[in-house]
């Protein structure tokens, strides 16, 4: 793979940039939720992200834009989509949105956007960037467990070792071994860590439900629709936060504004296109190796900018979880990265 990085460098550059963006995003979220209430931040982010994705949906002529075009004939007419180096449609997709899939889209949106983001934001408020970035690596391990327990998928011996390594690594990051010697993490931090794991569980369940939809619609379409679900479901919690603190927006600094722009434009949009394009170019198996850049970047920035302490349990846990994520997904390509990112 090393030689291919130099001979076919652009896809690898793109995927490295995507994971660097997402690694930085942990610190950006941590700083931004100190100025903007978490549910309000989620509402702003997914509303803006949906609006930013809409032009690409129009250009592609993909569903559900095709449905809207039939209702509003004055809207611009997209030509038949053309396949090029950056394929917005990502394969064979259905051109019209089937209303029978509405409940499925809502369910996936609630799991992958609403619950996942809510748990992640609330968890990151309470725990460290280092813990959160490491714990998100348990997603493929959780996916393997659910696939085995619920879908009765075949699990190999190496996958079992991977799950066990990930389990012990998670226990180490949670700080459970330190409790026995009286040096455990604070209750608030422990709650934050468990919320991060809950966010991962919601993501995995939603990703499994989304597989059937992705066989009919492009990733672009599903991303746009679940962003819309997130925007709608976060509206009432955002209004509630405004009622409780109607002056919060007056305390938002340029740093908070930058955080919103970065989370929306860089993480949700640029990261999405960089990752999707590079995934199509180099394949899931090779792309999967680069996911480990995220905790390295997040932990480094957490130490440098937030003054976080790197516990030995984090290092041990990170190594075990990384090994677990790799071993548990060997011969299990379907449990590697989904084609859209989490936060």
Amino- and carboxy-terminal Cα gap: 28 Å
Low-pLDDT parts are 80-91, 177-183, 335-339
Query: What is the average per-residue confidence, as pLDDT, rounded to a whole number?
Result: 79
The percent range for helix content is over 70%
Radius of gyration: 20 Å
Major sheet description: none
Shape: globular
H-E string: HHHHHHHHHHHHHHHH
Helix count from the secondary structure assignment: 16
Beta strand %:
under 5%
Computed structural class: mainly alpha
Number of strands: 0
Description:
The protein is an all-alpha fold. The chain has a domain at 7-69 and 100-136 and 187-302. It has helices at residues 2-7, 9-32, 38-60, 65-71, 102-126, 129-135, 139-149, 157-174, 176-179, 187-214, 219-233, 235-244, 254-282, 284-287, 293-306, 312-328. α6 packs parallel to α16 and α7 packs across α8. The longest helix is centred in the last third of the chain and has 29 residues, at 254-282. It is globular. The protein starts with a helix and ends in a 15-residue tail after the last helix. Residues 80-91, 177-183 and 335-339 have low confidence and may be disordered.
